[in-house]
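Researcher: Predict the fold of Glycoside hydrolase family 5 domain-containing protein.
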Amino acid sequence: MSPSSPLAACLAIAMVALLACRHEHAAAAAVPTLSTASRWVVDESGSRVKLACVNWPSHLEPMLAEGLSNRPVGAIAASVAAMGFNCVRLTWPTFMVTNASYGDLTVAQSFRRLNLTDALAGVRANNPAVVDLKLIDAFKASPLPLAVVSSLGEHNVMVILDNHLSKPGWCCSNTDGNGFFGDVYFDPDVWVDGLTRMATMFAAVPNVVGMSLRNELRGPRQNANDWYKYMQRGVEAVHAANPRVLVILSGLSFDNDLSFLNTRPVNLSFTGKTAFEVHWYSFSNSQEWSSGNANQACARISSGVASHALYLLDKGWPVILSEFGVDNRGGNANDNRYYGCAAAVAADLDLDWALWALQGSYYLREGVVGLDEVYGVFDWAWRGPRNATALRRVQALQRPLRGPGLAQVAAPYTTLFHPVTGTCVVVRRRSPPAMELLELGPCDETEAWDFSATQQRLAVRGSSGCLRAEGVGRPVSLGVSCGDAMARWSLVSDSKLHVAVNATAAGDGALCLDVGADGRSVVTNPCRCLRDDNSCDPESQWFKLVASTRSVAGKQSLLAQQLPLKLKNWRVRSF
Ligand SMILES: *[C@@H]1O[C@H](CO)[C@@H](O)[C@H](O)[C@H]1NC(C)=O
Ligand SMILES: *[C@@H]1O[C@H](CO)[C@@H](O)[C@H](O)[C@H]1NC(C)=O
Ligand SMILES: *[C@@H]1O[C@H](CO)[C@@H](O)[C@H](O)[C@H]1NC(C)=O
Ligand SMILES: *[C@@H]1O[C@H](CO)[C@@H](O)[C@H](O)[C@H]1NC(C)=O
Ligand SMILES: *[C@@H]1O[C@H](CO)[C@@H](O)[C@H](O)[C@H]1NC(C)=O
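Model: Structure tokens for Glycoside hydrolase family 5 domain-containing protein follow.
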């Protein structure tokens, strides 16, 4: 983009005026209109759009998107795009649009009412244009810079408007009055009115591509009959007001449960514009991750998530993992074990998702001013990533692996995905001496592997060699001799995330793929805590064999050509 373009001019002027720029950039915007094709979210041409979103809250008491006291909204939006998220799940409370005692407040009034003096000064410094706007106008302005960003060619940041609760505040508890239809703050008529207003208000904003009806239904009143009664009403209301948006339905029990749909599907007047969402945190299962064996926990819990929600993929519905995430400080054992397992599932099914969360801190949360968000992508001050390592491993899930319109290779191949680092096994060539090393590297540089469960063979497609174990703590190799036990791989442990050979004959027992002491090389080590033991962490040995059709950028053919040549130079081992 050249600095003199009209878009740059739009960016440069006050945010209020961005409203006026909308029509100009709308034509240039490459934001898709979403619909569904069986389990996939697709664009107008039927090609897959993978939602790789981040949650950005605007539903707490101040009712302003968090972070505007720290940085200009356009800078935050640009960071979102630069970090590779193509979408934001932007939350809002019903009362902001249905109740004048909230909706009539300006940003300044809302902050003063809560004594948020410093935060207001920060908003004034970083986003002066929103200070005297009504809250809803500030909210409208918030996604618009995203629309501007999206029109800049490379960055397409879509927005899903998420009705998070009714009464502004932190969410969610069983008893906060916002949990289910009929709760003290959850009048179904007011809710439908709020949804209709939002759908109408944003009908002409191209990058608002989706609306989720209600976050985390819950509490003593929850029941499936009322879910159908009101959710179907909500879907129809949104669709009538804005037939362009994808409408997203959440389940019961804090959006952990959509199992009731197995026997009774939704009954809607239209098709192709609805998806479901599910939330999955470590604490969705209390302390099961840290108190039990991690492989057994992974097998049991992921099969529960499948039977409660992800089974809908097989029934032809998209299911968006619209909240997941971990304490990014790395010290929560429950979270650490959960993450490797959840990321393996997300990669395996190539899920659409929204990470919790963007915000490094809150203006005010649960009575605490400036509360630090340890799950946040940003640091407290919203300047840079809180934990670049944690961000990188989530970024590995951003690009689609398969789906309509995306197939780049004839037949799906396998990637050896290491979920806990967000990397894949790649082949590096070193010379001199000419040799190949297997390392963890960017998944974009993966080899096209083929795994045959019957032959127990793991090989680079098109090559005559195979993956071989070389002993405890030693790097694995690409060998020519593939018939012995050191080259026969199987998926062991309940999680099926251990990729192992039986090296008993060599005196080593079961050896599993692992990360070497350098943090990069791929080695084998004795398989760790396959079952029962809850005191050790197997995650470094977790590899998921994930199907992909994403282009391997010529690597496959290159390797196939080079392999016979290079084999001559190998240190040929005697087997
Ligand atoms: C609007 O919000 C105020 C303050 O919470 C509340 O007292 C009032 O009952 C609400 N009105 C409606 C119509 O929901
Ligand atoms: C704001 O400060 C005033 C004066 O100190 C106090 O009376 C009031 O309760 C405070 N309001 C809130 C929401 O904290
Ligand atoms: C679906 O909804 C329509 C319109 O409300 C109704 O006529 C029909 O009986 C419903 N079908 C089922 C299976 O409930
Ligand atoms: C960053 O995240 C990684 C992955 O969870 C963790 O191992 C590390 O301890 C974290 N580092 C910091 C400084 O928080
Ligand atoms: C591993 O191989 C040995 C023979 O070398 C065999 O006795 C043993 O049953 C095998 N273990 C498994 C788990 O297959």
